[in-house]
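Whiteboard transcription, Tuesday session. T.W. wrote the C-alpha cells on the left side:
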C-alpha cells in the first residue's frame, strides 16, 4: 500500500466575500499540489467567513452544493490531479443553512459533510444541525472521514468514522482564542482510534474574534507529526500511511503487552451513550463538598 502526501492549508479569509475567498483557496490549492500533495485540506467556512451577526447575513454568503464554487474547485482538482476538502456555508432545501465541507477530486464532487454538533458561537448560532450520518470516502487507497471543529470535542464522532474504516479524520476548524485546550484533544482522537487526524485551522481576526492557527497532523500513536504557527499563512505537509492506521493491534511487548482499542470495545456496556435523555444527575454538593 502506498503512502499519501497531504497538505493542510492554514490561511485567513474575508468575511462576506466568497469570490475573493474562492480565489485564495484556488491559489493555495495550486501551491499545495506543486509541493506534491494529493489531498489538500482547508479550514472551516473558508469560503464564507464565520462571525455572522444573523442568519440573513449568513445566507447571503452561503452557496448551493453543487454550485459555481464546487464546480470551480472540481475543475481545479481535475486539472491538478488532487483531492480537496473545503469549508463553506451551504444553502440546503427549504431555506436551511448548514456549516459544511465539501470533498472534491479529479472526478468532481464526492461528498458533502454537514456539521453535526453546534456550539453557540458565530454562524453556528444560525445554522441547522447536520442531517446526514457520518461517512467514510475511499479516495483510491486512502479512506477519509470528515468532522468540523466542535465535532472534534465529541469522541463519538471520530470513533464512528473509525468503525466505518477511516484511515484519516480531517477536521476543518475555526479555533478562536481560548481553544488551546481543545487543540490537545486531537492527540486523544488519533491515539484512541489509531488513525491519522488532520486539524486545519484559520488565522486572522473577524469582528473581535482572533483565530489561533496551530493546524496540525497527528499520527495514530498520538504524536504530533507536524504543526503550524499561531498567526501565519502556512502549508503543512505530512505523509499518511494507511496500513499503519489499519493495523489496530498495537504490540508493545509480544505476548505480554498488546492492545487493540477497536477490538477491545464493550458496546454492550455503552447504553447511556445512545439514550436520547441523559441519565439523572446527582444532587448538587453543599458548601462542604458533600451531597445535600
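and on the right, the sequence the group agreed on:
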Amino acid at each position: 500500500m502506498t503512502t499519501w502526501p497531504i497538505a493542510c492549508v492554514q490561511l485567513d479569509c474575508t468575511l462576506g466575500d466568497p469570490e475573493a475567498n474562492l480565489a485564495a483557496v484556488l491559489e493555495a490549492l495550486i501551491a499545495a499540489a506543486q509541493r506534491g500533495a494529493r489531498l489538500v485540506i482547508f479550514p472551516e467556512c473558508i469560503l464564507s467567513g464565520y462571525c455572522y451577526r444573523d442568519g440573513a447575513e449568513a445566507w447571503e454568503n452561503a452557496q448551493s452544493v453543487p454550485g459555481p464554487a464546487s464546480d470551480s474547485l472540481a475543475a481545479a482538482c481535475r486539472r491538478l490531479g488532487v483531492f480537496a476538502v473545503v469549508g463553506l456555508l451551504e444553502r440546503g432545501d427549504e431555506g436551511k443553512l448548514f456549516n459544511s465541507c465539501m470533498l472534491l477530486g479529479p472526478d468532481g464532487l464526492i461528498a458533502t459533510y454537514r456539521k453535526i454538533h453546534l456550539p453557540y458561537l458565530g454562524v453556528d448560532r444560525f445554522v441547522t444541525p447536520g442531517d446526514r450520518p457520518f461517512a467514510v470516502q475511499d479516495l483510491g487507497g486512502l479512506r477519509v472521514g470528515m468532522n468540523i471543529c466542535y465535532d472534534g470535542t465529541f469522541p463519538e464522532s471520530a470513533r464512528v468514522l473509525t468503525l466505518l474504516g477511516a484511515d484519516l479524520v480531517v477536521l476543518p476548524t475555526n479555533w478562536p482564542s481560548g481553544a488551546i485546550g481543545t487543540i490537545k484533544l486531537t492527540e486523544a482522537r488519533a491515539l484512541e482510534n489509531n488513525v491519522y487526524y488532520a486539524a486545519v485551522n484559520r488565522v486572522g481576526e473577524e469582528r473581535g474574534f482572533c483565530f489561533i492557527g496551530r493546524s496540525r497532523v497527528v499520527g495514530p500513536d498520538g504524536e504530533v507529526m507536524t504543526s503550524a504557527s499561531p498567526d501565519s499563512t502556512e502549508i503543512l505537509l505530512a505523509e499518511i500511511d494507511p496500513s499503519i492506521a489499519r493495523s489496530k493491534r498495537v504490540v508493545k511487548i509480544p505476548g505480554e503487552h498488546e492492545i487493540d482499542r477497536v477490538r477491545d470495545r464493550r458496546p454492550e456496556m455503552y447504553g447511556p451513550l445512545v439514550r436520547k435523555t441523559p441519565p439523572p444527575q446527582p444532587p448538587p454538593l453543599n458548601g462542604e463538598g458533600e451531597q445535600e
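Someone added at the bottom: The chain has a mean pLDDT of 95.
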